[in-house]
Task: inverse folding
């Protein structure tokens, strides 16, 4: 059978069906996922159950699928862009779910459409399907607001663009990372300060691989003023910087608390986000937001 012609009735039907789909939408009735593996050297249960040597298409049962493809490509004509990327929905325990909602598990993501369940999007597994299949699926909106859509897109980006920091920097930042993670949910001045941050960035000068490096930590806060009951941002910043003292190649360490408007474009582009995603995750959506 030849490939569908752009003006064929079937191609037009598929395009019409995909016109309402967008990144982050859910296919809750599609409980299957396929990946490639070798049953002779199994790394997953699906491969072990296969038992066949060589390249195999391995099917797994999942709790549904989430669309990863950008909306602009989802709605393009199927004969021009025939593929859609999806990831499986999986069930997780209560502690893991809380971590995902705080952004502490970059390999997993959540959506307002999943908030009433224990399901998350497994970003480690991605499957490509043709739009003709998606056209027959039942669409469940994954979110209702532009802000929630951007948050999901940012979760996808974090999975792919996390910076590989040098080992000696990871050792230097370990105390700070542990402190911020431990105190983030506390009902204290520090906890409120951490929840008022949208992200933490670090800038290395002249370069990460230089023999002597000066570090600038950018604590980027939301525009709203946080209530610290007497303590100031300067107090919190001073306490955080005590956890990252100069050592080894890192001869100078400074920090600032700023809003995005106060950061220059040059400083933002020259800095890298630290993988402390619980600082930049928006508030957990409520069931009523979808």
Result:
């Amino acid at each position: 059978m030849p490939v569908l012609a752009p003006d064929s009735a079937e191609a037009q039907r598929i395009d019409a069906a995909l016109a309402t789909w967008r990144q982050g939408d859910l296919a809750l009735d599609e409980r299957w996922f396929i990946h490639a593996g070798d049953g002779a050297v199994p790394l997953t249960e699906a491969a072990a159950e296969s038992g066949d040597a060589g390249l195999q298409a391995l099917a797994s049962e999942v709790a549904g699928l989430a669309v990863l493809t950008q909306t602009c490509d989802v709605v393009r004509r199927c004969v021009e862009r025939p593929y859609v990327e999806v990831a499986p929905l999986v069930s997780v325990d209560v502690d893991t779910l809380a971590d995902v909602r705080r952004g502490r598990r970059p390999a997993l993501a959540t959506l307002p459409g999943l908030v009433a369940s224990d399901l998350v999007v497994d970003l480690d597994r991605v499957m490509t399907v043709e739009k003709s299949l998606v056209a027959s699926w039942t669409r469940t909106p994954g979110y209702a607001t532009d802000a929630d859509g951007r948050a999901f897109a940012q979760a996808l980006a974090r999975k792919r663009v996390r910076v590989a920091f040098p080992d000696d920097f990871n050792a230097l930042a370990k105390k700070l990372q542990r402190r911020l993670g431990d105190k983030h949910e506390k009902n204290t001045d520090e906890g409120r300060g951490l929840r008022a941050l949208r992200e933490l960035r670090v800038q290395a000068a002249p370069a990460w691989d230089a023999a002597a490096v000066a570090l600038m930590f950018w604590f980027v806060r939301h525009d709203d003023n946080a209530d610290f009951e007497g303590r100031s941002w300067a107090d919190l910043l001073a306490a955080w910087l005590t956890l990252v003292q100069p050592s080894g190649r890192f001869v100078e360490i400074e920090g600032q608390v700023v809003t995005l408007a106060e950061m220059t474009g040059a400083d933002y582009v020259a800095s890298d986000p630290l993988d402390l995603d619980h600082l930049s995750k928006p508030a957990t959506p409520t069931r009523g937001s979808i």
